[in-house]
Amino acid sequence: MISAILSLADVSYSYPDGTHALSSCSLTIRRGARTAVLGANGAGKTTMFLHLNGILRPSAGQLQWEGTPLDYSRNGLRMLRSRVGLVFQNPDSQLFSASVREDVSFGPMNLGLTDKNVRERVEEALHAVGMTEAADKPVHNLSYGQKKRVCIAGVLAMKPEIIVLDEPMAGLDATMQEEFTAVLERLHGSGITIVVATHDLDFAYGWADQAIVMRAGRVLAHGAPREVLLQKDVQDELGAVPLVAEISRQLSLLGIDLRDNGYLPRSKGELLKAITAHTRQENRP
Amino acid sequence: MLTELSAYTNRWRQAPPAAKGLFSFCGMAAAFAAGSPRTALLVALILSAATILGAGVPVLRYLRVATPALLFLLASGLSLVVSLDFGGSTGGLSAHLAGAELPRIAQVSCRSLACLTALLFLALTTPLVDIVSLLRRCRLPDTLLDLMTLCYRTLFVMSEAVHETITAQSARLGYATFTLSLRSLGGLVANLSVQVWQRSQVLQLAALARNNDGALRFLGPDYPNPARAVSGAAVSGLLLIILAVTLP
Fold first, then answer.
1. pLDDT tens for each residue of A189-212
2. Exposed/middle/buried for B88, CB within 10 Å: 0-12, 13-18, 19+?
3. Complex ipTM above 0.85?
4. Could you tell me if A7 lies within 8 Å of chain B, comparing CB atoms?
5. Would you say A129 and B187 are in contact if contact means Cβ atoms under 8 Å apart?
6. Rounded distance, CA B232 to CA B12, Å?
7. What is the widest separation between alpha-carbon atoms in chain A?
8. Domain limits of chain B?
9. Strands A4-14, A60-65: parallel, antiparallel or unpaired by DSSP?
10. DSSP symbols for B174-205
11. Angle between helix B37-49 and helix B102-125 axes, rounded to 10 deg
12. A40-61 residue pLDDT tens
């Protein structure tokens, strides 16, 4: 059975200026899952993420790590932040040092590890995101996509159990997005739970195991993407349907059923494969 | 960013900063030890040769980086040679040549030139992050080094923000006339102030998210054969000092 790693129970939070960013927000992040968080700008995604890392503390409600309420003491936060890695949207606001290696070492150094240990972790993390070759370049000479990878390496070097990424695909071109998805897949393959905030419905539909849709600081829908993202209220909120799902639906209206043992294609690649397979079957004498 | 370019692409990029720092320090010591302008010039020549021939910094780039400092040195030298007198005995403006002081001025100027080449050697062969890590090992106060690290990083982030804002303003005729330019410049400064404040807040959050509790700690770089490089730098630096002391 897949267990909950982090959960929010009726969490509310208001910023000092009075903005209610979260109102009775409840959700569960499953260990080992790929979770996509969707919602319009201002829906509370970033505020929720800052709660997961203990940077913000709920004004009401509770967060739990594997069923135990979060400990906001110095040691508790230290433990939480080494387990939950947070990658911000803009890499330039996250990178401290002009040296790639130095910046990646920042987190593990804060954990008080030995230099030898930190050095090993830095190399491992750079290798995991494919940035070993660029490790000696200054940060300001890297491309936007490379800077994002360095940010992930900086978090990865702390060996977290969850990595939370705030709109990681924003500002990346199609090739970079593909490369970035491959990095996320590798991380997920190594057992890390991944949570991603995104506006890209097609990405969420194809990539995620669970989708959380937020509206005005609350969870509007929570569950498997193929169920959640096709709900009427979710479509109204997000203003669109995943393209692959819509094409499959239109084709089924024309009598072309792309289901393979009940499995509907979730990504562009899967859709093309299903259409090819269906056409071959139709043409078989 | 010519200095930056050289620091990352020169032949001695992978040499330990301690070795380069030591050689540069010896160069400055030799500049002070030089007994005559001729010897100081020789020290400057050797240090430039080390940068250009040794580290492989292109001559033209070297000269372009050195020019502003050289002009400053020239202006300082000239202001020592020529002194202006307002009023005085004749009641008008008069200029005097410091004839008796000329050898002394030549000595100071040549010594400054040698010091400049010593500093250029370090700046053009060593990236600032390496210099900061060297200073950290020399036990300089953390706060000072953290400020250096953040300022250096922010320099690039803010220069990008400045370029973007100016482009956006120009695209809407923000700099079409003198009055508009002044207004746009005001807008740019105001916008940057807000950005600095917002970015510093996000940076604070990013530091917290990575378990930071105050001082910025980074892992120092690791270099192959540091002892060999440092002893090599020490020997050549010492030879330079001996040369400066022994030559008349």
1. 999 999 999 999 999 998 999 999
2. exposed
3. no
4. no
5. no
6. 13
7. 71
8. 2-126+224-246, 136-209
9. antiparallel
10. TTSSHHHHHHHHHHHHHHHHHHHHHHHHHHHH
11. 10
12. 998 999 999 999 999 999 999 9
Interface contact B129-A138, CB threshold 8 A: yes
DSSP B221-243: P--SSHHHHHHHHHHHHHHHHHH
Fold of the domain built from segment(s) A4-240 = Rossmann fold (3.40.50)
Q: Do B219 and A140 touch (CB under 8 A)?
A: no
pLDDT in tens, B26-38: 999 999 998 888 9
Contacts of B222 in chain A (CB under 8 A): 119
Cβ–Cβ below 8 Å for A106 and B218: yes
pLDDT per residue of chain B (248 residues) written in tens, 0 to 9:
788 888 888 888 888 999 999 999 999 999 999 888 899 999 999 999 999 998 899 999 999 999 999 999 999 988 888 877 776 666 677 777 777 778 888 899 999 999 999 999 999 999 888 888 888 888 889 889 888 888 888 888 888 889 888 888 888 888 888 988 999 999 999 988 888 888 888 888 888 888 888 777 788 777 777 888 889 999 999 999 998 888 87
Choose among A81, A84, A103, A82: nearest CA to A92. A103
Please give the DSSP secondary-structure letter assigned to residue B52. I
Q: Which two tokens stand for residue A68?
A: 């135990």
Spatial separation of the C-alpha atoms in residues A4 and A33, rounded to whole Å: 10
Segment 83-112 of chain B within 8 Å of chain A by CB:
none
The span from the CA of A143 to the CA of A137, in Å, is: 11
> What is the sign, positive or negative, of the torsion defined by CA atoms of B27, B28, B29, B34?
positive
d(CA B159, CA B116): 27
Quote the pTM value: 0.79
Q: Domain map of chain A by residue range? A: 4-240, 242-285
Contact call for B133 and A78, based on CB within 8 A: no
Please, which residues have CB within 8 angstroms of residue B193's CB and are 6 or more apart in sequence? none
Stretches where chain A sits below pLDDT 50 are: none
Tokens of B14: 């992978």
Do residues A124 and A195 lie in contact, with contact meaning Cβ atoms separated by under 8 Å?
Answer: no
